Amino acid sequence: RQLFRSPSMPSSIIRPILKRIDRPQDKDTPVKTKRRRSVADSPGEGVVAEPVARLLRSKSFCQEEIENLLADDQDLIGDFSKAYLLQTVEGKHQDLKYITPEMMVAVLTGQFSSLIESCVIVDCRYPYEYEGGHIKGAVNLPMEQDVEEFLLKKPIVPFDASKRVIVIFHCEFSSERGPRMCRFVREKDRACNEYPHLHYPELYILKGGYREFFPQYQTHCEPQDYRPMHHKDFKEDLRKFRMKSR
Description:
Helix content: 25-40%
Domain Rhodanese: 115-222
CATH architecture of the domain at 98-245: 3-Layer(aba) Sandwich
Distance between the termini: 75 Å
Family: Belongs to the MPI phosphatase family.
Structural class: alpha/beta
Mean pLDDT: 82
Radius of gyration: 33 Å
Enzyme class: hydrolase
Strand order of the largest sheet: 3-8-7-4-6
CATH class of the domain at 98-245: Alpha Beta
Order of helices and strands: HEEHEHEHEEHEHEHEH
Strand content: 5-15%
Number of helices: 8
Function: Tyrosine protein phosphatase which functions as a dosage-dependent inducer of mitotic progression.
Largest sheet: 5 strands, parallel
Region (Disordered): 22-45
């Protein structure tokens, strides 16, 4: 369509066009649109509304939100390279992956040995609890500096790149100390790697903690006993470690 008047175009056609463009819009119309009639159209034909561009507010996601969206959609491990190996169950904290005591025993008895090169069981209980009875092979790391020194100062790397290194955290009930330590490791791991690479992309929580594991699988514990955090003979130890963890 021509933007300027052509010498061959009658002025009677130009004027209606200009008049229509300048006509005020209806104030009660929620979306104002400009209408235009083609100069080739006859006066009796209907006019077509021009499409109106809509401006939408852009939404930005932080790194944690992106990670959660990806993980929720495909259930991938922390570096998004593959799916979680162990079957997980619902737990107290929805952002963490929980396994049952039965699944823990499956790992301990080598049922995943063809896929797992190293399984680190992190017992986050206080030393007097650990000494009173713990899962065989578990390492006692009750403080953040302990777990950072053990896992991140010299990360555990599989000799066979096709196999995995997994870390399973627990405390007495796996309600507070275990989940808190799991999040701490992931945070520190992210900080020392270029996203999304991680030293330990596959982290789990033992659901129910040692309190639920011990009655079912005492033979996988040493000594075969269970010392609760609030044991009457260790009140001073509890007070001391709580002061340290603040």
